[in-house]
Design brief:
The complex is a heterodimer of chains A (253) and B (245). In chain A, α6 (107-118) packs across α9 (163-201). Chain A folds into 2 domains: 1-33, no CATH class; 38-248, MetI-like (MetI-like fold, Orthogonal Bundle), CATH 1.10.3720.10. In chain A, 86% of the residues lie in helices and 0% in strands. Chain A is mainly alpha-helical and 253 residues long. Chain B is an alpha/beta fold and 245 residues long. Chain B has one domain: Rossmann fold. Helix content of chain B is 31%, strand content 26%. Chain B has 7 helices and 9 strands; from the N terminus they run βββαββαααβαβαββα. Chain B has a 6-stranded mixed β-sheet, sandwiched between helices. A 3-stranded antiparallel β-sheet of chain B has the order 2-1-4, with helices on one face. In chain B, α6 crosses α7. Chain B is globular, with a radius of gyration of 18 Å. The two termini of chain B are 31 Å apart. The chains are: A mainly alpha (253), B alpha/beta (245). Chain A binds chain B through residues 151-152, 154-155, 157-161, 165, 169-170, 173, 248, 250-253, and chain B through 52, 55-57, 73, 75-76, 78, 80, 82, 84, 86-89, 97-98, 100, 124, 126-127, 140, 144.
Chain lengths: 253, 245
Amino acid sequence: MAVSALYDRPRLASLVSSALFLLVWQLLASYLDSSTLPAPLAVARVIWLETLSGQLPYHLGVTLLRLAFSFSIAMLLGCAIGIAMGRNEKLNHFFDNWLVIFLNIPALVTIILCYVWFGLVEYAAILAVVVNKLPNVIVTIREGTRTLDRDLLEMAKSYHFSKRKTFLHVIWPQLYPFVMGATRTGLALIWKIILVVELLGRSDGVGYQLHLFFQLFDVAGILAYSIAFVCVIQIIEFSILKPLDKKALRWRR
Amino acid sequence: MSAIQINIANKSFLGDSRVHNQTIANLQLSLAEHEFICLVGPSGCGKSTLLNIIAGLDSDFEGEVTLSQRHQKPSIGYVFQNPRLLPWRTVRENILLALPEGYPSEPIDVMLETMQLTDVKNDYPERLSLGMSRRVSIIRAFAVNPDILLMDEPFVSLDPPTARQVRQWLISLWQQRPHTVLFVTHDLREAIALADRLIFLSKSPMTAVSEIIVPIPRSERDDEKAIEAFRQSLLENHPEIRSLL
């Protein structure tokens, strides 16, 4: 009875599920009573204090800026290369092996190599993130390009659509779900890699702070920064990606 | 002077197991300017392939297709067998997109009105019935004021009254602004009602079997008895076309 009531109200259901999560956490923390698992309130207090001192907003901002840069570069390059490889079978054949290699290099290796080759500088950090993300975008967009509807492309050709018109009105709407897919997995992947990049070679950003807290064994600090970051990613999802989806897919029945 | 010269020696598709399936063999056709031609033949014989070649969508064949010299690049209106509308653009946007830059858009609203599509002009194609989508694709082809109009069984899923109405509309547009029409159908009555000349095509590999001029004056094309009488005499006098229908 109660379950079916929740089933009909998704908002309420997600609220109850979040509350349940916090409750389990609180119970576990009280039971263990250890500094390695602080209670939710203790973590909330750290978030509040770090925000007041300006530390949290500063490091969060630095990391978000890196995220924005590397994400944009990876998406733009990835879309261009993915479309090219999806439309040109010879090109795809030639570079397919490269793609497999880059897909399988561990993130840690690219990060270390970038720092060794270019030094502990900002562009090395950005480059490491881009190299990690790029192959994923290329593969997703390539698959999308391969599924383009031939009938519609023929229609565009027979009515002498210009290149720009064909891209905007025929190709892009079909690629859009794939670009959104790459965006979602991209955000999730990139922000995890960025923390490692910062941990290994930068002196600011969320990753650097986590490193600091790790050395102090300050679990409350670690949780505070992670939760703050996850919240920001969720806000991006709900305020930017979801509305974009809704607008772009309004033609569906 | 002919508007379209078609001379296709061979058109093959690479099928499964690397065998060349010949679709068109030794096809020679010559279309006069502003002529209305109906291509009649069994389904699957390669009529759509022929239209694609004329539209310039398929250049992988042996032979030559020459479109009229007078226009550097003749504008082509192509009504495909399936409507091929962009699902993410509204009905009106679909038609507007086919127009070249700076083309007037007013005639479109008149055409939508004639085809009883005014109510749905701002809807997305997925909300339309197949018959409605078909009419939109027909408007799109007319809207570009084509020099050459290619129609691939365009009236198949329309109900008979609508089909008749669209046929009359097609003829009146063609008379107002003459252009060369290639109309594919397997309905002989429809072909007789529309065409200046019928061209019968064989099963694959496709070639022209016979060409017959329809002598019925345009003013009497609505008369179903006259059409039927001509159809009967055609079947009697040309036994070779019976197997193609």
